[in-house]
């Protein structure tokens, strides 16, 4: 801390020019947008502004004489083996593994859980300059083929390539101009960290976050180069869904840019229009792909699809924006007279049936028994429920699990033939239950600590389930649960162990803070070393998001552990309105005309931390990523 005393001078930020001439007229209301010019990343003035921001950050970081020590600590904590939950296709198991400091995790394959695993795809070897990133994989039903998507130089656009799994031969297929939509948590690290009143504390956090951000960018940069017979392009906001005959897969993409437009797209800020849904046959050119669906009358629609586990139905979801609503169409693949091959010979879209043709709610398929489909939905249930319908009688819907009074039904996964694992969010803490798929009755409660369930890996035919878990003090655990036993147990299958990290040194506490309106309680997690004195002496980092119905749940962070362990900081997450922590009502309570509630909630959380003695205003830093950057900016100005 003493090493910072020589750099207390005010930071000289580059001046952002205001252009008062840019005015929009919204229904007679004039809105000035003086910084519209910053929306063009290719403009020389914008490049110059960004470069000056970089130079400012570098000027601060170079004066930190503990930077090398921080780098050493962060590197040591990162350098621990990590595993994702395995998934099964055909008679093989697949999983991602990172030995510690690998920029990207490596995909492994094994013939059984006890068999020796071998590397299937190492994205760290796919480009010499580290500009290729592996962003999605999909294995065919017979485990003979791997489809994987690569993004280059941080672009949203991706290219799908194909590999033969047995001999790891990369085919010639390559599908371009595809784009996968990253979740908002992906943008979590692109943050805005600001100190309130105290410059030295801000600089302390800036040093640490700058070093961590270097490691984060490094982890994104490395990746992949292979060539595969089928290359899919114009790939944006897409899924990869194999048909069960493994002859090909469904995907969606945008039309290729017209001649004369920038073909190295990915940094553009204009919206993409006219999404289309395709089927690609292995070993053919992308230009020969079957156009399965398009809707030129609605250019903003986004299409994604999946094939049901019985292989009979193609279910397509249609979305228009980030709202939790979608349409649902389906196509009976078994009813196509000549199969998908028949559409090679003639024009025309697939004969989809419109089961849900309005944006009234969100519908997610859990399972189907022939024509009887089970859905997770928020239809008349802001905290979600499970319903069932027979496609033969599409107007008759039956409730399987009703909406809970307070807890949010986050997910449901069909397992063990006629069961499902449901995941609830209860006061921002996960609850796992095993229920009967037919009638929804509770069979077992699975014990887990306060934390987050990142993945439930299983299919309906599987009796062994893998559950990926993390928390503020648990870097990562993959649990194995055998549902054939009388009382299923959560056994540790793999665990991330960080040498020198002792979770018993820390304490996690949840409080409920009254917001400005007096009637709303805002949940907030407070993480710190044990037995700290509440005398206002601690640096404090408060994080918030509050948008897009996204819940911010407990997770492990190397950088925050460094803050708490070596710098005596307190880390907090305020689960403000606008997120999904209490369902759609909580989301709408911080959206649009009620957006001010987000800022009021966050300010109330800050005031609590000061009044309770955790910190003081000059030691308090607030942070938000993506939508949370708006939150931080608004709170500073207010």
TrEMBL record:
**GO BP annotations, alphabetical order:** proteolysis
Which top EC class is given? hydrolase
Q: Which Gene3D superfamilies match?
A: alpha/beta hydrolase, Prolyl oligopeptidase, N-terminal domain
Task: Write the protein's name.
Answer: Prolyl endopeptidase
The signal peptide, as residue positions, is: none
Specify the species.
Answer: Citrus sinensis (Sweet orange)
Pfam (any one): Peptidase_S9_N
Q: One GO molecular function term?
A: oligopeptidase activity
List, alphabetically, the PROSITE patterns matched.
PRO_ENDOPEP_SER
Kindly state which keywords UniProt assigns to this record, in alphabetical order: Hydrolase, Membrane, Protease, Serine protease, Transmembrane, Transmembrane helix
**Catalytic activity field:** Hydrolysis of Pro-|-Xaa >> Ala-|-Xaa in oligopeptides
Peptidase S9A N-terminal domain: residues covered:
14-180, 231-490
Cellular component terms per the entry's GO annotation:
cytosol
Transmembrane segment boundaries:
174-194, 206-229
Keyword Kinase assigned to the entry: answer is no
Nucleotide-binding is among the record's keywords: no
Q: Entry's InterPro entries? A: AB_hydrolase_fold (IPR029058), Pept_S9_AS (IPR002471), Pept_S9A_N (IPR023302), Peptidase_S9_cat (IPR001375), Peptidase_S9A (IPR002470), Prolyl_oligopep/macrocyclase (IPR051167)
Q: Its Enzyme Commission number?
A: 3.4.21.-
- Record's family? Belongs to the peptidase S9A family.
* Residue ranges occupied by any Peptidase S9 prolyl oligopeptidase catalytic domain in the UniProt entry: 554-638
């Amino acid at each position: 801390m003493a090493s910072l005393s020589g750099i207390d001078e005010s930071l000289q930020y580059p001046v952002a020019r205001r252009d008062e001439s840019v005015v929009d007229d919204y229904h007679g209301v004039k809105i000035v947008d003086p910084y519209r010019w910053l929306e063009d990343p290719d403009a020389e003035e914008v490049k110059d502004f960004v470069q000056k921001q970089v130079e400012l950050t570098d000027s601060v970081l170079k004066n930190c004489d503990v930077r090398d020590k921080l780098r050493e600590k962060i590197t040591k904590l990162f350098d621990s083996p990590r595993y994702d939950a395995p998934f099964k296709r055909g008679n093989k198991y697949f999983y991602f593994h990172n030995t510690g400091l690998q920029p990207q995790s490596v995909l492994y394959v094994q013939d059984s859980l006890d068999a020796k695993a071998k590397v299937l795809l190492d994205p760290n070897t796919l480009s010499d300059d580290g500009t290729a990133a592996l962003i999605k994989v999909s294995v065919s039903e017979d485990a003979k083929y791997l489809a994987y998507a690569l993004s280059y130089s941080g672009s949203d656009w991706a290219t799908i390539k194909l590999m033969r799994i047995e001999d790891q031969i990369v085919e010639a297929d390559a599908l371009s101009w595809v784009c996968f939509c990253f979740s908002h948590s992906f943008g979590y690290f692109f943050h805005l960290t600001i100190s309130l009143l105290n410059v030295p504390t801000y600089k302390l956090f800036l040093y640490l976050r700058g070093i961590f951000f270097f490691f984060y960018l490094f982890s994104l940069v490395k990746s992949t180069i292979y060539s595969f017979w089928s290359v899919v392009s114009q790939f944006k906001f897409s899924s990869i869904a194999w048909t069960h005959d493994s002859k090909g897969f469904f995907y969606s993409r945008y039309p290729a840019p017209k001649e004369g437009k920038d073909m190295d797209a990915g940094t553009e800020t204009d919206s993409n229009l006219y999404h289309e849904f395709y089927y690609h046959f292995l070993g053919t050119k992308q230009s020969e792909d079957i156009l399965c669906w398009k809707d030129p009358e609605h250019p903003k629609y986004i299409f994604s699809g999946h094939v049901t586990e019985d292989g009979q139905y193609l279910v397509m979801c249609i979305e228009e924006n980030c709202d939790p609503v979608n349409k649902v169409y389906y196509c009976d693949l078994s009813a196509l007279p000549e199969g998908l091959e028949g559409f090679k010979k003639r024009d025309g879209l697939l004969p989809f049936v419109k089961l849900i043709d309005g944006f009234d709610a969100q519908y997610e398929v859990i399972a189907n028994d022939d024509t009887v489909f089970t859905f997770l939905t928020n239809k008349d249930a802001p905290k979600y429920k499970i319903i069932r319908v027979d496609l033969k009688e599409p107007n008759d819907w039956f409730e399987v699990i009703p909406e809970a009074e307070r807890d949010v039904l986050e997910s449901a996964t069909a397992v063990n033939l006629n069961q499902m694992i449901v995941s609830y969010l209860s006061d921002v803490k996960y609850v796992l239950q095993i229920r009967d798929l037919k009638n929804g009755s509770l069979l077992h409660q699975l014990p887990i600590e306060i934390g987050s369930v990142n993945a439930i890996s299983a299919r309906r035919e599987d009796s062994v389930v893998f559950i990926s878990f993390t928390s503020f003090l648990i870097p990562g655990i993959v649990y194995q649960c055998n549902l054939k036993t009388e009382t299923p147990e959560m056994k540790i299958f793999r665990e991330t162990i960080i040498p020198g990290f002792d979770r018993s040194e820390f304490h996690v506490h949840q409080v409920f803070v009254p917001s400005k309106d007096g009637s709303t309680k805002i949940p907030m997690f407070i993480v710190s070393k044990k037995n700290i004195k509440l005398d206002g002496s601690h640096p404090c980092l408060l994080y918030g998001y509050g948008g897009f119905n996204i819940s911010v749940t407990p997770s492990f962070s190397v950088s925050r552990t460094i803050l708490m362990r070596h710098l005596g900081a307190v880390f907090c997450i305020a689960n403000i309105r606008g997120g999904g922590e209490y369902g759609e009502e909580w989301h709408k309570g911080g959206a649009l005309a009620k957006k001010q509630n987000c800022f009021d909630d966050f300010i109330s959380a800050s005031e609590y931390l000061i009044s309770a003695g955790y910190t003081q205003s000059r030691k308090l830093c607030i942070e938000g990523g993506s939508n949370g950057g708006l939150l931080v900016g608004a709170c500073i100005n207010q």
